[in-house]
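Extended Data, panel c. Modelled sequence:
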Amino acid sequence: MGTDNKSKVEARASARYFKMSANKARRVINQIRGRSYEQALILLEFMPYRACYAILQLISSAAANANHNLGLSRANPFISEAKVDESTLFKRFQPRAQGRGYPIHKPTCHITITMIEKT
């Protein structure tokens, strides 16, 4: 009748206000979700998108957090959760003809990676 209160041991890393559209970052995140740490590194190294480098650094940071804070080895972790959330827009104006201003919206996003040890 009692519930098992085992807490998952997970390491997390997040990048906030990353200057990229959420859809462009999701295109990369969807490829690595549920994969092991080593598979994700190999995939990100050879994908041709600009978001890959930042996500590669984020995965390395999550693995370092797992190693340092939780004592997990770098051999077994896998990406249990990877999400991209939209953030605020940087709003700018581009000067146009006859004194008008044309709005420029520069999107940002929050990227969160959660890793757990595969048993």
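The first helix runs from residue 22 to 32. This feature is highlighted in the accompanying rendering.
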